């Protein structure tokens, strides 16, 4: 089961790399850095999915994207490698920090989508319950998978240690050679 979770985490981090570089970075960096086709992709997404945060991001969302670029993106490469390789104990604490950060930011984003009145937005946002649920469903995997990662890493204190590996190739523990006194 652990290996299945590691492959899921590997896939999650691998998929996040191009999304963050191509899409989310446009919120942080000047538009002249991007070819028109990439700018058009963000515009299409924002208008089609009614996600005004991508087209006219509030300051708090820009701050989240800044953290994503400078804190999370470097971690994505290390995490993808660690979960691809499997049972890398060094990734446990950074994964806990990352996932706690992301889950916290996604709570704010999901709440905003569910409760904000987008009628005054420059770009149309979700106005019906179905539109809100559709947009929430796009963001939800970026909440659920980090939450699962957090649970797995916190619950498995032995992650990455050979003692936590169960199987026929696990060496027997060393026994004491002390002599018993008669």
Element layout with pairings:
Layout lengths: L1 H22 L12 H13 L3 H4 L3 H27 L6 H24 L13 H11 L1 H15 L27
Protein architecture, described:
The chain has 182 residues and is mainly alpha-helical. It has one domain (1-155). It has 7 helices and no strands. Helix 1 packs across helix 4, helix 5 packs antiparallel against helix 6 (129-139) and helix 5 runs antiparallel to helix 7. The N and C termini lie far apart (48 Å). Mean pLDDT is 91; it is low at 162-171. It is a multi-pass membrane protein. Residues 5-150 form the EXPERA domain. Belongs to the TMEM97/sigma-2 receptor family.
The chain-level mean pLDDT equals: 91
Shape: elongated
Range of helix content: 55-70%
* Helix/strand order: HHHHHHH
Main location: endoplasmic reticulum
GO cellular component, one term: endoplasmic reticulum membrane
Membrane topology: Multi-pass membrane protein
Subcellular location: Endoplasmic reticulum membrane
